[in-house]
Amino acid sequence: NPRKPAVLLFLSSDDAGIRLTAEEALVALGPDAEAAVPIVAALAKPRATSASRKTALRILSAIGSEAALPTLVAALSDKSQTIQLLALAALKRLGPAASPAIDDLLANLSGSASTRRYVIQALADIGDAALPALVRVARNPTLKLDVRRTAIQRLAEQKSPAATRALAEGIRDPDKGVRSACSAALMRQTA
Q1: Residues 102, 130: contact at Cβ < 8 Å?
Q2: For residue 35, which of 101, 142, 156, 186 sits 20 to 30 Å off, Cα-Cα?
Q3: Distance between CA atoms of 174 and 80, rounded to whole angstroms?
Q4: DSSP E strand boundaries for the chain
Q5: Which regions in the chain score pLDDT beneath 70?
């Protein structure tokens, strides 16, 4: 296709070295490569090879465009944990622009410990829009303690009145581990 910039054509090369060079070029361009999002997103589709999908998600993360949101959300449900983590890292990098994905992020709290940590980090980086979701996670007694503690730690970093209220309420939680984490978080907030 003569209309595609050469670097995008090189992403489809059979030569791994050429593909890597193209990836590095697009990653280096970062947000300046936003026009490439539709083409790169097509490489992240489930029918593509695992290597192509990983490359595409790394590039989409570096570009940091909201236009990649549908592709990133779709990758959250992939069977490959690596693909899921790359999508989570890209959503985390989007920050507040990833707020439409809050429910999709919450759906991934049942994954591995790494996945759960990335979900909480992405929610925290979304900011105020995800604060209610972080509070729900911290309060949810059906979730593993590590998930709740991570949410509590990220709530403490928010330093907002709503986060402080949630931490103060957490001191009365039936779970000793949650009470302790909330107490320590409140102490860090006031230090």
Answers
A1: yes
A2: 101
A3: 36
A4: none
A5: 1-5
